[in-house]
Amino acid sequence: MELFEQIRREYEFGCGTIQGVARKFGVHRRMVRQALGNAFPPRRQARSPRKRPRVQAVAAFIDRILEADRDAPRKQRHTAHRIYVRIKQELANYAIAESTVRRYVRQKKRELGLLGREVSVPQCYDWGEEGQVDWYEAYVELAGERQKAQLFSMRSMASAGAFHRAYPRATQQAFFEAHELGFAFFGGVFRRLRYDNLSSAVKKVLRGYRREETARFIAFRSHWGFNAQFCTPGAPQEKGGVEGEAGYFRRNHLVPLPKAADFDELNQQLLSACSADAGRRIAERLQSVGERMAIERERLLPLQSEGFELAEESFATVNSKGCVCVRTNWYSAPLAVGTRARVRVLPAHVEIWHAGARVARHERSYSRRQQILELEHYLDVLERKPGALAGSKPLERWRAEGRWPDSFDQLWSSLNCRHGRQVGTRSMIELLQLGRRLGYARLSSAIEAAVKLGCMDAAAVKYLLHEAELPRISALPLEVGPLAHYERPLPDLSSYDQLLIGAAT
Predict the structure, then answer these.
(1) For a 10 Å CB count at each end of the chain, is N or C smaller?
(2) Would you say 447 and 407 are in contact if contact means Cβ atoms under 8 Å apart?
């Protein structure tokens, strides 16, 4: 365009000849005539397509593969590299470069619509109308160890507020608990929640939008009064709000990796991050996220006075090792062999109940075929079998968790030396029984005090345990009365100083 302008100016105000202008700018006279005829350069003529004899020989083979991929699962379709490998295997007589195959596959996929993205239609939502829920993964550092966590996300589509919570596994109990905490965070319940086809809610995908839901999920949404909608399988764009929220939260609050002692501390950090996001303003919206959440809170369904029963209950029988089997793992219980106990599985704990009372509570293990043993559950048995304490797995677990300090070993060793192994171990078990009743922190303090004092005896530890509860009798003041007659002043001993001075001289 600039060249045409210069040619026209030069012809009109300069040399004034076509040949002179062409010579000055180094162009053909034909271009000078084109510039004088029209200020706009002519469109370039499309070149005829180049012949590609190499790719034409295998084009039909590639076309058949791409047509068949239309009906294949999305994640099991041919890549350009895979097609190239098949050409080498099945059409070994044809020599072709992989880059040539890649260019043809890219062009053909574009023609077939396999590369094009669908146009999304912007949506608007009424206050409290819809929330979207999803799980996503992220790595975190807990107690100095990197591990993968499952994060629950609930996003309001009207206000763009979001709630995130981390769990070791995406179990149904965690799924329900996170819902209730999310409802509390937003201050109410959405009228409709949109999900993908996760197993915690969907038992079977039927035709269209119909789903066979799990019984507990039906009871859960009935309790809280919301409706559930499920996305088409393989179409995550139908809940694009929460999909984008997961990416935003991961990039802004999980980079660098969050560090915490446990999941409780980690979830406090995530809750603070959710509250901090209330101050951000999204693109074209006039109010901040927090201001929109405050408006929406008035339009949400009210919270229920009582939460849903999150625990999944079952019955198990205590085996010969004093354990019940729960989800492939074994948890100890202070019950007799053969007792049938009620087990309640919660997101983070496993509770064992018997005769209407909770007799054991363990941290839930998400591994397989693990033994979670508590030493205090075996104390009654160890009183009859004291020799089993030294090599027991419950004692090993206490040592690994730091619940068996060195002072316990020092006292135990001293008791064995003074009374013999059997009697000394019985005395140590008797002290552990007191710790179960009075608290192990109190027992630890008493044993440490006894070790510092050098009183390596069970009786001294028992005294220190009950010292604060023992009655203390203080002497009452006496009335002198008639005895005051015999009161005498203190003697003056200063004269003895004179004797000391004389001895020195």
Answers:
(1) C
(2) yes
166 class by beta-carbon count within 10 Å (0-12 exposed, 13-18 middle, 19+ buried): buried
Could you tell me the two tokens for 468?
A: 């604060």
Rg (CA), the chain: 41
DSSP summary character for residue 488: -
pLDDT band at 481; cut points 50, 70, 90 = confident
Q: How far apart are CA 385 and CA 36, in angstroms?
A: 113
- For 256, which DSSP code? S
* Contact predicate 315/324, CB 8 Å: no
Measured from the Cβ of residue 400, the count of other Cβ atoms closer than 10 Å reads 9
Q: Is the pLDDT of residue 502 over 70?
A: no
At a CB cut-off of 8 Å and minimum separation 6, what does 214 contact? 172, 199, 200, 201, 202, 203
Question: By C-alpha distance, which of 28, 81, 90 is closest to 58?
Answer: 90
313: CB partners within 8 A, 6+ apart: 342, 343, 344, 345
Tell me the residue type at 227. Answer: N
Top-confidence residue, 260 or 77: 260
Q: Which structure tokens are listed for 143?
A: 């107690």
Across the chain, mean pLDDT equals 89
When pLDDT is averaged across residues 377-400 and rounded to a whole number, the result is 94
Please name the residue ranges forming H helices in 340-473. 379-384, 393-400, 406-419, 421-438, 440-453, 458-466
Q: Are 430 and 461 in contact (CB under 8 A)?
A: no
Residue 134 backbone zone (phi > 0: left; psi -120 to 50: alpha; other: beta): beta
Cα–Cα distance measured from residue 45 to residue 27, given in angstroms and rounded to the nearest whole number: 19
Positions of E strands within 108-161: 130-142, 145-156
What is the per-residue pLDDT across 423-435, written as a single tens digit (0 to 9) for each?
A: 999 999 999 999 9
